[in-house]
């Protein structure tokens, strides 16, 4: 069975907690992490209103937190996400809950 992360980008606040948790858990040097939050925008959407969004993306250093998952725990990025916009699980189950502004990443 394949597993992945489902990220609801509508609720990501860009706090970077997922990055810090990953870096600390995996003992990675400053500037390296298994997940990185990309800033998208800002761009004007009309009437003086602006849009700014964030998109967490997995890097080649993501191990899927295999040791944590083997212990029945969530990946560290999911556990520490302050906006609770990340879910870990079987890809088929996560895909069934897909909707607008959600991104599914295979691990």
Structure characteristics:
iron; 107 residues; transport; two-stranded antiparallel sheet; globular; 5 strands; Alpha-Beta Plaits; Oxidoreductase; alpha+beta
Explain the overall architecture.
By secondary structure, the protein is an alpha+beta fold. The chain has one domain: 2-Layer Sandwich (Alpha-Beta Plaits), CATH 3.30.70. The protein contains 4 helices and 5 strands. The chain has helices spanning 17-26, 66-70, 76-80, 91-95, and strands at residues 3-8, 35-46, 49-58, 86-90, 102-106. The strands form 2 sheets. It has a 3-stranded antiparallel sheet. Strands 2-3 form a two-stranded antiparallel ribbon. It starts with a strand and ends with a strand. The model has no long low-confidence stretch (mean pLDDT 96).
Instruction: Name the shape in a single word.
Output: globular
CATH topology: Alpha-Beta Plaits
Sheet having the most strands: 3 strands, antiparallel
Query: Within the largest sheet, what's the order of strands?
Result: 4-1-5
Mean pLDDT: 96
* Number of structurally distinct domains: 1
SS content category: alpha+beta
């Amino acid at each position: 069975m394949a597993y992945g992360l489902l990220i609801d980008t509508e609720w990501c606040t860009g706090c970077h907690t997922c990055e810090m948790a990953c870096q600390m858990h995996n003992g990675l040097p400053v500037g390296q992490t298994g997940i990185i939050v990309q800033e998208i925008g800002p761009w004007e959407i009309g009437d003086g209103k602006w849009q700014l969004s964030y998109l967490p993306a997995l890097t080649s250093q993501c191990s899927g937190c295999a040791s944590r998952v083997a212990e029945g725990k969530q990946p560290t990025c999911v556990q520490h996400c302050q906006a609770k916009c990340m879910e870990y699980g079987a890809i088929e189950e996560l895909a069934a809950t897909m909707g607008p502004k959600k991104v599914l990443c295979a691990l």
